[in-house]
Each structure stands twice: as structure tokens, then as C-alpha cells.
Structure to design on (298 residues):
């Protein structure tokens, strides 16, 4: 089975990379980009039957730093 | 004083740290990240700068899961001293020994220069050799030194006098210009600037020496 973990900076944490991407989009002529937030997508190839709680532990322990990041799990 | 310097794949300030501690009179042991235990009788663990595990995933995240880090956490919980510099600071926040997190510099650039660093407290074994309010000349070299703390944590750090150092001028986006923080028991210090790179006249300055000397004195006295 496969699962996909999305890791994003929490709301309220300034994202300097997202800001730079926003400015770059404006600079190459795309008007109206009000905000950009950059995150990570992590694809996991897992043993069949791995439960979502276990994936949650992977996120809590390693994949996300929950001080500044939030995550969502998508089982594919 | 007996000190351990942790070595991860990608550490590159480990030998500088050893030299700085030895100069101050410490007996220094280099410890590989796969070891599960620290050498017996270690007073201080130093987590050095570098790019442990290539900074993959997040700076310090993978190092924080290594076997030796569990021993470092036990050492800290038993009241031992821990110093994390640069990548070492990132590792200590990832282990949870220090609060907050370190993000990409707000200017997105790697900063490498010698800066004015303000001493905020003398109340720790790391900073007792300095004068609060005094300025040190210490090098910084990092891409992810932007210290993030929410408003309540930032206020608590100030209330509890746990901000050890601040940048004299904004450098990397750190909240309140925080450059170094202490744990609740004041025995764990994480800082982005490199005191071990300021211990010899040939480095261009020796303002880092007082930290290592004070640590050695603190552990000899204890």
C-alpha cells in the first residue's frame, strides 16, 4: 500500500521560501498571486495493512516538526 | 572535566569543538552517532555544527533520531550539561531538549560572517564568564538559523531569563533576535553562533574562550 503525507508550515509561521516564490511569480508577470506557501509531499511505500495511526506516529516522530509544521495523511 | 563531542555523518565543526574544549582543559572523547551510550563520567556533551545527514528532511531531524541522541537526552534529563552549536542547536530543538524551532533564514541566504553577539544573562555555566549586556565578536555560518517561537514561548523565555544571547542587529529573522536559548534547568544551551571558532588569535578573536573555561570550572567545582 502507499500513503502520501503532506507537510505544511502552520498558519502564522512565516514562510520565507513561499514569499520568495510569490515575488518571483510577480516578477515574471503573473499578477494577483496573493500568497504562496511551500510544503513537502512524502510518499511512503508501506506493508499492506499499515494503519493510519502508525503513519501518524511516523509524522509526529520524524516526518513533521509539529512545533512549526502540520501534516495530513492520504492513504492511496 | 570530561566532555563528549558527538560526530554525525556530515558534522564539520566537531574537531574545532574538541580543540576549544581541550584548550580550556577538558578531557575530550569523540563519540560516533551510532553508539548507544556516552563514555562513563561525561560532564558535558557538545553537539557540533555541520550538516548532519545532509540536512535531509529538516536540519537536525534525522540526527535527533540517532541512537546517541537518546543517550544525550538521558544525560540532560539527569542534569548533565549539553552545548549545541549551529547544527547542534537544530538537533537539540528536534530532540525536544530545547523549545522552538530553527527555520530557513528570512533573507533566504546563507550568512557567514563575524557578528556582534549580545550576552543576555550571566546566569548559566555557559555564560558566567561574560558580562550581561556585553558584546562578543563571534562567527556565524548558517542557512537555517531563523529561531521560531510563538508569542507565549518567546515571553516565557524572557520571563525565565533563558535567552542567553541575542544578535545585536537583525540577522536571520529570529524572533526578538534570539541567537541562543537555555533549557529550564539552565544546563542545556543551544546557539547558532560558533564560540569554538573564536578561541585563537589566528581566528581573529578569542571571545569564545570564556565559555569553555567557565564550563570546565563549573564541572570541576561540582
Amino acid at each position: 500500500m502507499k500513503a502520501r503525507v503532506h507537510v505544511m508550515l502552520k498558519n502564522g509561521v512565516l514562510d520565507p521560501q513561499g514569499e520568495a516564490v510569490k515575488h518571483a511569480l510577480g516578477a515574471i508577470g503573473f499578477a494577483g498571486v496573493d500568497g504562496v506557501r511551500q510544503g513537502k509531499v512524502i510518499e511512503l511505500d508501506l506493508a499492506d495493512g499499515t494503519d493510519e495511526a502508525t503513519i501518524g506516529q511516523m509524522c509526529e516522530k520524524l516526518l513533521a516538526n509539529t512545533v512549526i509544521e502540520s501534516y495530513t495523511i492520504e492513504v492511496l | 572535566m570530561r566532555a563528549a563531542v558527538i560526530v554525525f555523518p556530515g558534522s564539520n565543526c566537531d574537531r574545532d569543538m574538541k580543540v576549544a574544549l581541550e584548550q580550556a582543559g577538558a578531557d575530550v572523547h569523540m563519540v560516533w552517532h551510532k553508539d548507544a551510550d556516552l563514555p562513563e563520567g561525561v560532564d558535558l556533551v557538545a553537539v557540533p555544527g555541520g550538516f548532519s545527514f545532509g540536512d535531509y528532511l529538516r536540519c537536525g531531524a534525522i540526527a535527533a533520531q540517532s541512537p546517541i541522541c537518546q543517550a544525550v537526552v538521558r544525560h540532560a534529563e539527569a542534569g548533565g550539561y549539553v552545548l549545541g552549536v549551529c547544527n547542534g542547536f537544530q538537533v537539540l530543538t528536534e530532540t525536544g531538549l530545547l523549545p522552538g524551532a530553527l527555520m530557513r533564514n528570512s533573507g533566504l541566504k546563507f550568512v557567514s560572517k563575524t557578528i556582534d553577539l549580545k550576552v543576555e544573562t550571566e546566569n548559566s555555566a555557559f555564560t558566567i564568564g561574560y558580562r550581561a549586556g556585553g558584546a562578543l565578536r563571534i562567527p556565524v555560518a548558517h542557512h537555517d538559523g531563523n529561531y521560531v517561537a510563538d508569542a507565549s514561548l518567546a515571553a516565557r523565555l524572557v520571563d525565565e531569563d533563558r535567552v542567553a544571547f541575542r544578535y545585536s542587529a537583525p540577522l536571520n529573522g529570529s524572533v526578538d533576535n534570539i541567537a541562543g536559548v537555555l533549557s529550564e534547568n539552565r544546563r542545556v544551551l543551544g546557539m547558532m553562533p560558533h564560540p569554538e571558532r573564536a578561541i585563537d588569535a589566528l581566528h581573529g578573536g578569542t571571545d569564545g574562550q570564556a565559555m569553555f573555561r567557565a564550563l570546565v570550572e563549573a564541572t570541576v567545582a561540582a
